[in-house]
Design a protein that fits this description.
- The protein is an alpha+beta fold.
- The chain folds into 2 domains: 6-77 and 144-329, 2-Layer Sandwich (BirA Bifunctional Protein, domain 2); 354-451, 3-Layer(aba) Sandwich (Rossmann fold).
- Helix content is 29%, strand content 28%.
- The strands form 7 sheets. The chain has a 7-stranded mixed β-sheet. Strands 21-20-22-23-24 form a 5-stranded mixed β-sheet, with helices on both faces.
- Strand 5 (85-90) and strand 6 (97-99) form a beta hairpin.
- Helix 2 crosses helix 9 (321-332).
- The longest helix is centred in the first third of the chain and has 20 residues, at 37-56.
Length: 454
């Protein structure tokens, strides 16, 4: 198991501008973080990799970006308003509030060890809102606690706009909000986080086939695209299924303190569309759903060949983007012994994910010829549209190399005095520190090829 700790990643994130504590100048706010210059790039690259796999590489999945604020009725009929809660326990001695199912010992306070605890009570996880001029403080809307429900309520809209035969899916990436009792693990569990979820609608007779297919497909994506070693992942079936689920597994990553969930694959059967459809009694809904007298739309699928109209089953893939970023950084974080008591820290990210794709470094900042060549290379690379390119002007080549090692830049391009004479530059590779001379005219194609590598 790696010696890397969460604290190592926290320190790197602050030092190099990946993640900052939210509201830090006022003491922070639990479970809230801000993403800095390199954090936003890494998150964007993970999102893009997921979107490419779900949308651009397939012809059976459509995209969606639904509102963050939703009518209360969505969350009533989804079951969230009545059932979406955690067991809250409070220590009478020190006042610490804890989520009972996450306590080290449910009979003792995690903070002070006291056994004088309150009985557990349901703690509502949704964040309520009072919107409108006459709301008078009453909760009349919610911030969404996940992206899935707004996907289900748009099922008919998407199907009418972009007709599909079953199976087909709807994918969505976006913010979600949960009033967590005890945020923990840096960005692992937060009150404001980002999800990448896909709902795949299937004929009820084929649900097991597609559940297995998506389980295997998603594990392969973690390995082949994000670069997570297969032995750092495991698939864990749910011991106790949620009320809506026919089957469920978690893809877990081996964090420093053990395996924990980074993505869930769920067979939600016909619970979701069945919960939100009108005229429920017209369909043979298998899942137990609340009677719905408020919906205005039948969320059903009509089979053109058989003429039958039915509620599809849903196979869901649900990934935490923040958790994916944390797993990727932990996996890439490397400290290498250079001898003579020296070490270097390297973030060995796949170039596809690297926040900075290449750094251009003039060997001296007071030589106009070197600056001109460096600027021309920078401009040529920017025109490729492959991502962020940085030009360094500090003149300290060693510090520049170390900084770009830590943020995961695949290659550094050094412009030196030989560049003036023969039109070549030194390319230094992050992982091996090997250096080679390459013609300036070949640099754009060289960097583009590097960044397309998995």
């Amino acid at each position: 198991m790696s010696d890397t700790t969460i604290n190592d990643i926290v320190a790197l994130c602050k030092r190099r501008g990946f993640i900052f504590t939210g509201s830090e100048i006022y003491g922070g706010l639990g479970g809230a973080y801000d993403y800095g210059p390199y954090g936003v790039e890494l998150m964007k690259n993970i999102r893009n990799a997921w979107w490419n796999a779900m949308i651009y590489s397939r012809n059976d999945i459509e995209g969606l970006d639904a509102a963050l604020i939703s009518n209360k009725l969505l969350w009533k009929y989804s079951g969230h308003e009545g059932n979406f809660s955690d067991p809250l326990v409070e220590c009478k001695k020190c006042g610490t509030r804890m989520r009972q199912d996450k306590m080290r010992d449910p009979s003792k306070c995690d903070n002070c060890g006291s056994t004088d605890l309150t009985p557990p009570r349901a703690y509502q996880l949704m964040m309520g809102l009072s919107i409108g001029a006459v709301a008078d403080g009453a909760i009349n809307a919610y911030l969404r606690p996940e992206t899935a429900t707004t996907t289900y309520t748009n099922f008919k809209n998407v199907l009418d706009a972009t007709p599909h035969k079953l199976p087909f899916g709807i994918a969505q990436i976006g913010k979600a909000f949960r009033n967590e009792i005890s945020p923990r693990g840096f960005v692992f569990r937060m009150r404001e986080f980002e999800q990448a979820e896909m709902q795949y609608f299937v004929d009820p007779e084929t649900d097991e086939q597609y559940f297995n297919m998506w389980r295997d497909t998603r594990v392969a994506w973690w390995v082949n695209v994000l670069g997570i070693p297969a032995d750092k992942l495991r698939i864990t079936p749910h011991e106790k299924l949620a009320h809506y689920a026919k089957a469920a597994v978690d893809i877990e990553y081996e964090f420093p303190d053990g395996f924990d969930e980074v993505e869930g694959i769920h067979n939600r059967q016909d619970f979701d569309l069945g919960s939100h459809t009108k005229c429920q009694n017209e369909f043979n809904i298998n899942a137990h759903v609340m009677e719905n007298r408020d919906s205005t739309v039948k969320l059903a699928y009509s089979d053109a060949q058989t003429g039958k109209s039915f509620i599809p089953y849903v196979i869901e893939t649900a990934m935490g983007v923040n958790r994916a970023m944390l797993a990727v950084m932990l996996n890439a974080y490397t400290v290498e012994d250079l001898g003579d008591g020296k070490t270097r820290t390297v973030l060995k990210l796949r170039p596809l994910l690297s926040p900075v794709k290449a750094a251009v470094i003039p060997l001296a900042r007071n030589v106009p010829e070197l600056q001109t060549i460096a600027n021309n290379i920078e401009n040529a690379l920017r025109k490729l549209g492959i991502g962020r390119i940085e030009l360094e002007n500090s003149g300290n080549i060693g510090k520049n190399y170390r900084r770009h090692d830590e943020i995961g830049t695949p290659v550094c391009i050094t412009v030196d005095h030989q560049s003036i004479d023969d039109g070549t530059v030194t390319v230094r590779h992050r992982d091996t520190m090997a250096q080679e001379r390459i013609k300036i005219t070949d640099i754009p194609a060289f960097v583009r090829d590097i960044c397309e590598m998995k």
